[in-house]
């Protein structure tokens, strides 16, 4: 039994004991007042009261020890059940404890069986995801390569060029979709165990992410500015956090008109490091702010843009797996601000 529980029991015994003693003394005084008080009568009353108090003390002490011993026995049963040791109680006095222990062993066995089944299913999913990743990577890469060879190495008329360009574009979309689905599945099933959080400078991770999307932003003449002290750090995995930032930045570029602007502002708080990614895009309807992080969710307002609604879902899963969280504020036709909070303390 822990100390807090023992102390609470002791307080209960003391309170009840004190109340019982006061009650006995009060009754004794009352009897002495209403009856003729001879010496023999007084001695008998005091002897009786003292005997009652002593018996009450013995009863409370024995009860306390019994309760303490029973709880310690239950604690021992649970420890043995968890560790797999068997110490069954078979006596008549211990029949309730024996029943409790038997039920505890059955519960532990059922839980272990369920855990084993979950682990088997997880391994199957892991194998399936690996197979999908391996089986689709080469065909998609070959299709993209052949389409590039057609565009670069052969004289094609305008219609043929459009068809080859279409093949290349759709292949790139298919590759991105397959990669996103694989990453999402790994996150959902807990297969990604390579999210190793270390205290690293945030500026380095942001720079890597911007480098990934820079050409995309350049095509739309979108300016990206970063305001971040190079000494600001946070606990995160550089690879996966960079992936999360890329998803946010790609969305910002996609939904921001040409000649727009994206600001990345980093602030350090006591327990979290905040990374704000602010754009001048089309914004998000207020009623959809709680929906955009759902898997495959896409607003009707952006149906003309490419996408399947995985990026932000994946971003939230990555940030959550690192012990952080993400918030968003937005105004239609004025832009959005995605705020990522990463822990900077353990």
TrEMBL record:
PROSITE patterns linked to this entry: HIS_KIN
Enzyme Commission number: 2.7.13.3
Any GO CC annotation of this UniProt entry: plasma membrane
Example GO BP: cellular response to phosphate starvation
Catalytic activity, reaction form: ATP + protein L-histidine = ADP + protein N-phospho-L-histidine
GO MF, one annotated term: phosphorelay sensor kinase activity
Transmembrane intervals: 12-35, 41-63
Annotated ranges, domain Histidine kinase: 131-346
Classification via Pfam families: HATPase_c (PF02518), HisKA (PF00512)
Keyword vocabulary terms for this entry: Kinase, Membrane, Phosphoprotein, Transferase, Transmembrane, Transmembrane helix, Two-component regulatory system
Protein name per UniProt: histidine kinase
Catalytic EC class: transferase
Localization (cell): Membrane
Family matches, as InterPro entries: BphY/WalK/GraS-like, HATPase_C_sf, HATPase_dom, His_kinase_dom, HisK_dim/P_dom, HisK_dim/P_sf, Sig_transdc_His_kin-like_C
Organism, scientific name: Clostridium tagluense
Principal localisation: membrane
Coiled-coil segments: none
Keyword Transmembrane helix among UniProt keywords: yes
Origin: domain of life: Bacteria
